[in-house]
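# nightly structure sweep
# worker-07 picked up a monomer target from the shared queue
# config: single-sequence mode, recycle default, output format = structure tokens
# input follows
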Amino acid sequence: MNANTTSSAARSGGEATPEIHYPSPFNRAMITLAVVSAAFISVMDASIVNVVMPHMRGSFNVDLSTITWVATIYTIAQIITITMSAWWSTLLGRKRYFLVSFVLFTLASILVGTSQTFTQMLAYRILQGLGGGGLIPVAQAILRETYPPNRQGWAMAMFAAGVVIAPAMGPVVGGWLTESLSWPWVFYINVPVAAVGLTLVSIYVYDPPHMKRGINKVDWVGIILIGIGLTALQVVLERGQDEDWFDSNFIIVMTIITIITLTVLVLWELKTEEPIVDFRVLLNLNLSASCFVVLIFGIVMFGTTFILPQFLQNLLDHGPYETGLVMLPRGIALFCMMPIVGHLYNLVDYRILMCGGVALAMTSLILMSGLSLQTDYWDMVSRLVILGFGMPFVFVTLTTVAFSTTAVTDINSATSLYNLARRLGGNLGFAVMAILLERRTALHRVNMVGNITESNATFLSYKETLSEMLVRKQIDPHTAQAKAMGLIEQTIDKQAAMLAYNDVYWIMGWSFIFVIPFILVLKVNKQA
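# output follows
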């Protein structure tokens, strides 16, 4: 069962001091297994579809731009629900809301796998996102109140294991299931996990007595503003690249709608008695600083995770399963380090842990800026494992510190905003990576094409070598010259893209410096 609060005989200033009773170790383990597995499959379903989209295109006979809505629509529904999760928990009760979300997510997963048309697929993915979005912040809130203060590091390590490892495992699991069975199984795999999780939540999780229940007045204005503002924002971030960003009137209109509605939302919610999103909790410096750090963390870490499969498949010619195998060791390093960092949290200053993690992440990304088209498996894995070792030091520690000074009555709102910042960071990361890759690839290509002249002896020698090789394959000299130029064009395109990926990793590595001042201002209350 979850943490119960009773009145203690101890008094302070005449006020009764709450005495918190925590679940037994066995019950804590069952609660942890249930809620972490729920958060894991919810996060994984945002990334697992990336490796199966080519197969979905064939099934639904749609183009590449259209099929990406499978990921976009899930993200929109998920992020709206994450934002509203604290309100739903108050309205329905946290346990009931968690169970409803879990059931909705599971049923929608089955429906997605059985989709016969693309319209059905999008409708079911919306339902899946609405269910999955509520699982993430509520799982974190439940864990926060299930463990005593001296075990908070461990609790947040378990939560981090779910939400950080899931994006890394998505391509591995998705690639294997697609190649071994078929693409619907990337959704059916949620069902057995959900069956176990639902059973355990029903038995062991209870709402704490201090939690507010019921809503006196529904904030319809807030709901409408959230729906419009976050949908417009996600459309800008997810579709901006395809629409050529601000050269598109559609993206300009969506951006204006985003700015206006989200600004009005903040102002409205600050003056509303029972807001959908309680922005007042951000007056807590620890929470607001942590939200900024996790936003930057999301941009860098989830953004680079997003471009890695593209690099492996498009430039190194790996298949989905091979791509997963390259990324798997990083996931293993993450998994191994999570409990270690959770234990170190009580022994080592939190700022040292986080700054050490930042240093490891920077080292990994800067090393990755030296990759080439000849990079082999072990070159990639060695750099990614360093990143896997570094991420838990930041994420586990930050997730623990963020709520250490938050009142127990504000935990639902705090976890909602924290996870919103993390998710928005990831989506911003995708957009930033796409822009940087496109611009840097174009720049490097122009620079290299500028060297393709008749006065460049190296170019002439290479072209002649290619032509002679083609002539030896029984191709006539005139055609061989044209084909040689075609091969040179392909080489330029690949090298320009390779240099662009290196630039992105270098920029992202050094951008971690911006989070250090915010880490240093964090305070921790280890008695909370």
